[in-house]
Amino acid sequence: MKKVPCPIAAIISLMQYLLTFACIGLEIWNVLIDIFRGTMYAGIWCGAAFFIISTTVSCLCCCCCKPSCCEIFSVLANVISVLFAAALIIISIIFLNNLTLCVLPANVCNGTAILSDEINQATGTNFASSIFSASIIHQPITSKILPLRLLVAAGACMAATNIIYIGIFIIRNCCCKK
User: Fold this and answer.
1) Which of 59, 115, 160, 167 counts the most CB atoms within 10 A of its CB?
2) Is the pLDDT higher at 102 or at 115?
3) Helices 52-64 and 69-97, interaxial angle, to 10°?
């Protein structure tokens, strides 16, 4: 079994790391604009939950291990990462088409959460009201369009790097047998 050449794997891994942190940063930007509406925090859970894992596995397996099960695991991690990238793209497009969509209960989306009042009474402050207000940086909901579009682009680029990695592995192991 031939492994993906280390320089190529390193370049792909570096691109995947940059895209991972871009996804996380863009989702944080999106959340800061409106914490409840127009987000499922997909950039965070896709980025932190799986993109980092698959990128690290790909880099370590290709550069540090002998070709074996480790290489196959790396390819499987990239396949699963493509699925997460597709989820990120689809969720971002859904919210691009409906910026005010809220997947949380209506009282949370409207900023009238009962929990907010309970926290304020318990702490004797108005802290919870600021947490449960819809906008942290006080931007109009239409300002979510740019980070959501960039999330779609980052997800597409992540999927492309995963597919390139998988393609290189397939070409080296299935088509180039000597």
Assistant:
1) 59
2) 102
3) 150
